[in-house]
Amino acid sequence: xxxxxxxxxxxxxxxxxxxxxxxxxxxxxxxxxxxxxxxxxxxxxxxxxxxxxxxxxxxxxxxxxxxxxxxxxxxxxxxxxxxxxxxxxxxxxxxxxxxxxxxxxxxxxxxxxxxxxxxxxxxxxxxxxxxxxxxxxxxxxxxxxxxxxxxxxxxxxxxxxxxxxxxxxxxxxxxxxxxxxxxxxxxxxxxxxxxxxxxxxxxxxxxxxxxxxxxxxxxxxxxxxxxxxxxxxxxxxxxxxxxxxxxxxxxxxxxxxxxxxxxxxxxxxxxxxxxxxxxxxxxxxxxxxxxxxxxxxxxxxxxxxxxxxxxxxxxxxxxxxxxxxxxxxxxxxxxxxxxxxxxxxxxxxxxxxxxxxxxxxxxxxxxxxxxxxxxxxxxxxxxxxxxxxxxxxxxxxxxxxxxxxxxxxxxxxxxxxxxxxxxxxxx
Length: 427
Known about the structure:
The protein is mainly beta. It has a single domain (about 15-50, about 70-425), classed as TolB, C-terminal domain (Neuraminidase). The chain has helices at about 15-25, 30-35, 50-55, 155-160, and strands at about 80-85, 95-100, 105-110, 115-120, 130, 145-150, 160-170, 175-180, 185-200, 210, 215-220, 245, 270-275, 280-285, 290-295, 300-305, 320, 320-325, 340, 350-355, 365-370, 380, 390-395, 400-405, 410-415, 420-425. A hairpin with a 6-residue loop joins strand 14 and strand 15. The radius of gyration is 20 Å and the shape is globular. The relative contact order is 0.16.
């Protein structure tokens, strides 16, 4: 689901692999999600990368060589998580969204298929059920399956439409559906299925949903799973897996926006960008409209990408800045990451976040904030100056499954610690 890596070590021996998995398990409080990469029920090791998959070209930097240090006002390790919203203390929370036009009310999404609503403003209330589709999810799901994403329509206040992305079974597939909401609850009988995608394996399901400033719905799909993209989905523009899609859902069902890069041929018309392994969370900068994503790596690099129309992000030719299966590879048509960090040394699974546009930490204005699920590290990169290296805002924090952003631009951490935190300046 959150795209936990299926082969974290770089061809490490079994004994060392066990030590690393034990370390990750302690960090995430025995979260089954993280343990999936250490030989869990999804049997990811059934397709183990060849030695060539772990050999790379000459050492690459984790971000393009900087010509300047980080902005002085952005202090390394100068931030902390502060627990908020005790109403939302559920198991395996995956998303937090404020309901448009509903005062301070928000919903939290759980992987098991339940969505809860509560007032998080001055009239704070206990959480109440908003929608339960748990019976529609796949039976005996893998650790990367379940209810994975939610987005409210831009015109939600009048249309009452919202969208969810979840895993179903018989056969194994992912489903994009639309539901209708009443004043306090959604109608489970209102489901309209818009798209279904067959899933060959139980991992790398993607699940991110977001409406862009253009009013279109963007949908993130992983490469289909196993290890190393054995079906070659990432580079195949004719399939939907390993892609970010762009759909017009303003009418009944969906249509393809005419300016999608393959709307007139050359690939699946719904595709907006490709060459992604498992985009786990993406968002639009509320000021510039740019789309930013975290793409979970294989066994060497986790990466942050600025998503462009028709962009090829390299998987499975590239992982991060490096060649994946050979010492040399063609990078001429690939979009390089904005940043990458080492899998195993610095983390194990990237969680994409948001460009900060709040007022509480003005020094972070225009910086994209993201984190690692296993190590609880949170970084920021300057979206306006690619020469500035990423800054570690906090370390050893909770396992961040998703980030959230309120109407004021402040950033929150949704975690598997049954808690939600607000990112604040320390001291």
